Structures are given as structure tokens and as C-alpha cells.
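User: What would this chain look like folded?
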Amino acid sequence: HVCNQQRFGYINVPVKAHQTLEDERVNFVHLTLEAMVDGPPMQRSGHISIPPKPLTKLGFDEIFLINLVRRPDRRRRMLESLQELEIAARVVDAVDGSTLNSSDIKVLGVDLLPGYYDPFSGRTLTKGEVGCFLSHYNIWKEIASQGLQRALVFEDDVRFEVSFPARLRRLMEELEGARHDWDLVYLGRKQVNAEDEAPVEGVQNLVVAGYSYWTLAYAISLRGAQKLLAAKPLSKMLPVDEFLPIMYDKHPNEDYKQHFAPRDLQVFSAHPLLVYPTHYAGDSNWLSDTETSTIWDDDSKQTGWVGSQKTLRDPRDAGGHLRSASHDEL
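Assistant: Here's the prediction, encoded as C-alpha cells.
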């Protein structure tokens, strides 16, 4: 009999008649990545020897991986996943909001955007959200100071879709070839509104981004980083995934938007998405350092994910599955 209550191992997705050995290799890499999400990585036999994989930055000037020092398991999984994908990333220690007291936050120049409340739970900003914002903000500063023309940013809870490197390369090559001005491209996000988004002319699998949550993974240009910094967001902070839609003028709250000008960030999104979260609120292994935290200026007020919709699975998403047809999109 077949029992699906325990994990006994993995079987590679069979390739179709028209597919090649390269397709078989890509499927096997994806299987390996999925195994890392579900449990410890698979170990190669001691009887097999393979040369180390050459790592690349996929045409970007730098690839950043944001990780909290106290989450070494996430760091290890992401680095092993990126190595399987032959991607060279640099780990950036995230700002740990839990270590910041109210005085620290004030010294950093952080103040709450007037009138901000979480749209679902009604709570104000958490220390975890302050740390998350500062982590991305520090990367934007480095991009601007070093003059990096384009960079890639990953958080440490990313689940990659099949053929991620090839699909990302093609997307960016087509975007550059179409000569569209761009500041930021979501590779993974939660689309808030249900309506269709306009396709980008001359680029397959790219749309003009509407109101979105999450900062799982994105490409950002030098001009995009400069625009975000010029908005001086630390003195009027709200969660980073609320700030971005304000800057490309797709946030529904007009009161929030009036604090930022100009709101001319040019933002697109991969469609279908190239990455998804490893876990969602309610999953047995879900953990959020932004949702489960304390209020930004009051250590006594604990927060949790109950009431927030941001971290729930989007029923429209089909990511995170071993799909043998994914190569047909290449």
C-alpha cells in the first residue's frame, strides 16, 4: 500500500517526450530545493564526486540576502538553495527589531507615519517591521553609495519556482531590450486586488504592478534606490511593503500618500511570479519576526499575526508545487 503520512523520499518529475537531459537536470535541482524547504537537505552518496558549481550574479552588480543572525537555519537553507541554482549572493545581517528599544529607534531618526495602523488588525507599527524596513533601507543606501546599476534583493524565506535563473535572465534581458525605464521589479509578492494588471509591452511575463504586499525578492535599479532614499521615509515610517506601493502611487490610502512626493517609482512584477514564501501564517513551520513582535514604541505590547491578512496564503497563487509543465513557459 502507499502511505502519504510519512516522508520516505523523493522521485523526480518525469520529463516529457520532447524534453531533454537539461530539463531532467533542472527538474532535479527543483526537487532538491523543495526538499530543503520541507526538511533537511538530501545528502549525496559518498561514492559520487562532482566538481563545485560555478556561481554567477545573473547579470546583476550585486545580489543581497537579508538574514537575521539569530535565524542561522534560514541562512543555511537559502545559501544552499542559491548554490544549487548557481547564484552568488552576499549575506547582509538584518536589523533585529527585537533588540531595539524606544531610545534606539528615536536615535536612528525613526518616527511613525502619522495615522498609520495595520489595515487588518488595527495595530500600529511593530519593532519587527522597523527592523525589516531598516534592513532594506540599508541595502538601498549601499546601492546608491556604490553606484550599483542594478541589484537583486532576497529575504530568507524564499521558495523558488522551476528554472528560476533562466526565467529571471530572460525577463531582465527582454526588459532591457524593450528599453523601458524601470526602478523595481517584484519577483515575489502578494497581489492585493483581484483585477488584471496591464502587461508590459515587448516583455513576456511582466505586468505593471498594482497594490502589493511583501518584499520577498525584487530587482532594483540605482535610480529606484535613489528615489526611495530621497523620500526620507525613516521619519514617517510604515511597513516597507506599504511604503513601496505609495511610492509607485498604487496605495489606496490617500492620507498616507500625501506625505510622499513625487510618487513616480516605475514598478513591474513578474507574472507568473518566480518566487513564493516558504511558509504562510497557519502553517506548522510558519514564523514571522515582523508580525510576532512588540509595538515599535512600547515593549509591553505584544503582537501576533491574528487578524492580519498579509501573511495568509493567497488562494490565487499556485506556487510551491512540483509541476512538470513549468518548462513550457521558457
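DSSP finds eight helices and eleven strands in the chain. If you want, I can go into more detail on any region.
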